[in-house]
Specification:
This protein is mostly helical. The chain contains 3 helices and no strands. The chain has one domain. It is about 50% helix and about 0% strand.
């Protein structure tokens, strides 16, 4: 929340260098959670 307030106030927000660094695209995809819509969930569950 503190970062949001800083950004909203027009201040420059500094993040650590490793924020968003997942290595390879394959590793980044492995960390993603699957997204399903309600319709897809219904079809998957039955």
């Amino acid at each position: 929340m503190k970062l949001v307030r800083q950004f909203y106030a027009g201040n420059r927000v500094k993040l650590p260098q490793d924020v968003g660094d997942f290595g390879t695209p394959e590793h980044a995809l492995a960390l993603q959670k699957p997204f399903y819509s309600k319709t897809e969930k219904t079809l998957l569950i039955g």
